[in-house]
């Protein structure tokens, strides 16, 4: 292949990668601003500045695009939690704080998860994909909880821990009348109470 052909091929590949990234970025913004069912491929194409037909060269459908966007956002969370659990002794407290801190500071992931959880309609492939991600998250929670709970209770405890942390976020993250710093301090306090309650129930 001649040098000119190589350069043309390279530029074409770069353009394809740029289009794909722009589509994903637009999807993340839209899926974090409104419910899944209200986000159309046409709207994503408009925000990504590409034609609607071009999206289907990269993604099969809306569900495929949502899962791609969600995996990118959630992988960063999972990596942050895994790094934390490897270096800390008091894993439960640190994991709880890290999860809350990440979701509090990274609004895209928090909003995408919240909107999808509150949807009335179930979307098959997306629900299955989310289960795979939450399974990875629950595995991290189970490891952190294993110092405080018997093995037979770890599965249910991880699910309850996840629901409790998200419940704190949903209830207080956007509560009016407080500064962001005051809100964060209150959320942090509630997480400390949650962890202390678990430790009192099952001391090491």
Secondary-structure element string: HHHHHHHHH
Distance between the termini: 67 Å
Specify the CATH class of the domain at 61-201. Mainly Alpha
- Computed CA radius of gyration, to the nearest angstrom: 20 Å
Pfam families: TetR_N
Protein name: AcrR family transcriptional regulator
Organism: Lysinibacillus parviboronicapiens
DNA-binding region: 40-59
List the helices and strands and how they pair.
Layout: H1 3-31, H2 41-48, H3 52-55, H4 62-87, H5 91-105, H6 107-117, H7 124-145, H8 154-172, H9 180-201
Helix pairs in contact: 1-2, 1-4, 4-5, 4-7, 5-7, 5-9, 7-8, 8-9
Walk me through the structure.
The protein is mainly α and 204 residues long. The protein has a domain at 61-201: Tetracycline Repressor, domain 2 (Orthogonal Bundle). Helix content is 76%, strand content 0%. It is built from 9 helices and no strands. The chain has helices at 3-31, 41-48, 52-55, 62-87, 91-105, 107-117, 124-145, 154-172, 180-201. It is elongated. It starts with a helix and ends with a helix. The model has no long low-confidence stretch (mean pLDDT 85).
Structure described in brief:
The protein is built from 9 helices and no strands.
Considering the chains and any ligands shown, give keywords for the structure.
elongated, 204 residues, Tetracycline Repressor, domain 2, 9 helices
């Amino acid at each position: 292949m001649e040098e000119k052909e190589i350069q043309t091929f390279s530029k074409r590949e770069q353009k394809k990668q740029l289009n794909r990234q722009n589509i994903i970025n637009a999807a993340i913004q839209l899926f974090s601003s409104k419910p899944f069912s209200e986000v159309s491929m046409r709207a994503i194409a408009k925000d990504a500045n590409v034609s609607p037909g071009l999206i289907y060269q990269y993604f099969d459908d809306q569900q495929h695009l949502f899962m791609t966007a969600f995996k990118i956002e959630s992988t960063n969370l999972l990596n942050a939690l895994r790094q934390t659990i490897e270096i800390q002794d008091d894993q439960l407290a640190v994991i709880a704080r890290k999860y809350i801190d990440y979701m509090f500071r990274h609004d895209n992931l928090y909003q995408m998860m919240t909107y999808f959880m509150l949807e009335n309609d179930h979307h098959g492939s997306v629900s299955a994909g989310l289960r795979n991600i939450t399974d990875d998250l629950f595995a991290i929670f189970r490891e952190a909880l294993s110092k405080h709970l018997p093995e037979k209770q770890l599965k249910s405890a991880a699910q309850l821990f996840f629901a409790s942390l998200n419940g704190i976020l949903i209830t207080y993250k956007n509560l009016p009348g407080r500064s962001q710093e005051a809100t964060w301090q209150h959320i942090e306090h509630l997480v400390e109470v949650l962890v202390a309650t678990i430790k009192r129930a099952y001391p090491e």
